[in-house]
Amino acid sequence: MVGAIKGCTGQEPTVVGKPSPLMIDYLCDKLGLERGRICMVGDRLDTDILFGTDNGLKTLLVLSGVTTEEKLLSQENVITPDFYADSINAFFEEGAAAEVAEEAEEVTAEVEEAKESVAEVKKENAFEQL
């Protein structure tokens, strides 16, 4: 869409949607919000969660949409939300928010550990090829 507009007008468009920071910059300035107190909720790692992490927001991935738990936990995934839940309703069920937060911390630690392991193997393979 952006390319079509640029092609028709010959002008570089200003993108204000995800993942552009313009939207969150405006809201923080206009409403006096602190980024660390905002949680971006979404069902896509590559747009919603990336927007949140790139802009200093907390992030909650809901698995009721595009992204599956399998994709979230895969070693290929490089985008890690602060929290995740089966759905937004599950997140807000009594006691579920605390459980989700605890679970998310554990998963985040597991994902980071897996990424470090992959990086170490890549480093070893690169060294062996020398």
Short structural summary:
It contains six helices and three strands, in the order H-H-E-H-E-H-E-H-H.
Layout of strands and helices, then pairs:
Layout: H1 2-9, H2 22-31, E1 39-42, H3 45-54, E2 58-62, H4 69-73, E3 83-85, H5 88-92, H6 96-129
Parallel strand pairs: 1-2, 2-3
Protein architecture, described:
Helix content is 55%, strand content 9%. The N and C termini lie far apart (45 Å). The longest helix has 34 residues, at 96-129. It has helices spanning 2-9, 22-31, 45-54, 69-73, 88-92, 96-129; strands at 39-42, 58-62, 83-85. The chain has 130 residues and is mainly α. It has a 3-stranded parallel sheet. Strand 2 (58-62), helix 4 and strand 3 form a beta-alpha-beta unit.
Essential attributes:
mainly alpha; 130 residues; 3-stranded parallel β-sheet; globular; 6 helices; single chain; 55% helix
Helices and strands, in order, run as HHEHEHEHH
Q: What is the terminal-to-terminal distance?
A: 45 Å
Quantity of strands, as a count: 3
- Structural shape: globular
Category from helices, strands and their pairing: mainly alpha
Q: Tell me the major beta sheet.
A: 3 strands, parallel
Uncertain spans, ≥5 residues at pLDDT below 50?
A: none
Total helical segments: 6
The radius of gyration is 18 Å
**Strand content of the residues, in percent?**
5-15%
Sequence of strands across the biggest β-sheet: 1-2-3
Mean pLDDT: 84
Binned, the helix content reads 55-70%
